[in-house]
Amino acid sequence: MAGDRNIVIFGCSRGIGRALAEEYARRGARLVLLSRDQDAIAELQRAIEAQGGEAWSRNCDVSDAEDVQAAVSYARECLGGIDVAIVNAGVGGPEWMRDFRASEYRRVMETNTFGIANVLEVLIPVMRAQGGGVIAGVTSIAEVRGFPGSAAYCSSKAAASTLLESARVELRDFGIRVLTVRPGFVRTAMTAKNEFFMPFLMSPARAARIIRRGIERRRRIIAFPWPTVLLSRIVRVLPNALYDFAARRARSENMRS
Ligand SMILES: NC(=O)c1ccc[n+]([C@@H]2O[C@H](COP(=O)([O-])OP(=O)(O)OC[C@H]3O[C@@H](n4cnc5c(N)ncnc54)[C@H](OP(=O)(O)O)[C@@H]3O)[C@@H](O)[C@H]2O)c1
Fold first, then answer.
1. What are the average pLDDT values for consecutive 10-residue runs of the chain, which has 257 residues?
2. Is 74 marked active-site?
3. Annotated catalytic residue: which of 24, 74, 105, 153?
4. How far apart are CA 63 and CA 92, in angstroms?
5. Percent of the chain that is helix, strand, coil (3-state, to 5)
6. Ligand 1: distance of its center to the CA of 23 in Å?
7. Hey, which of 14, 45, 69, 77 has its CA 20 to 30 A from 202?
8. Does domain 6-256 match CATH 3.20.20.210?
9. Contact call for residues 204 and 219 (beta carbons, < 8 A)
């Protein structure tokens, strides 16, 4: 496990985060589980302990800087040091310009972007003091362009990826490895709301395995699955007129109704 024994996961009450906790628990890691849904993470903690694993849980809202500070203190008390922190917490869902609300845009940014910023602010001095560590932030392949129906989500993930990239370059000399996780489509409560075809949809367990291996290998960018990554690269470089045409055609029904 490349010495990755003490793991903290922000946002693991369900979906990819929960699968990551299960994946790490199976490999003997000691886990601190953080999410807003205290019942769900307490149940996950009990399930891990029933399998002979070690886990602690505490509610934490990543958009609340003080809560993040308290959660990291709790994690240090439980684990001693933190080898890997995974910031997986995220919100998203269809949002259309005809109903655009700046407040809703801000809510998505508060979790998906400022959640990662809040964790970085607390963990950088902690990891510097302990001589290093890994911070993995979960963004998305959806960051490549402003997709219709996903303005806040795409913006928040693009900003988060840029933040993580600067952090990756700057923090390397302190022994802090900053990794960016960019999943394609994964079958979770978040994607259950999508009304469009999702190519190469995968299970959360498979996504968790890929992420854990990528973290173990200290991959700067853990983007998967490769056909979706390839598709996203093509979409990124499409000329604007062609992109607008294709994106409008794909979602025209939703844009008007
Ligand atoms: N599913 C996909 O296809 C896909 C693709 C690309 C990227 N992603 C990203 O992967 C991550 C996990 O997504 P998912 O599909 O597993 O979604 P999900 O099933 O809806 O789970 C989201 C997790 O984030 C937690 N969370 C949300 N807001 C939070 C907050 N303010 N503070 C702390 N935890 C919070 C939720 O826990 P509580 O509600 O208990 O707080 C939950 O455990 C997200 O960052 C998402 O954007 C997903």
1. 86 98 98 98 98 98 98 98 98 93 98 98 98 98 96 98 98 98 97 90 98 98 98 97 94 67
2. no
3. 153
4. 14
5. 55, 15, 25
6. 17
7. 45
8. no
9. no
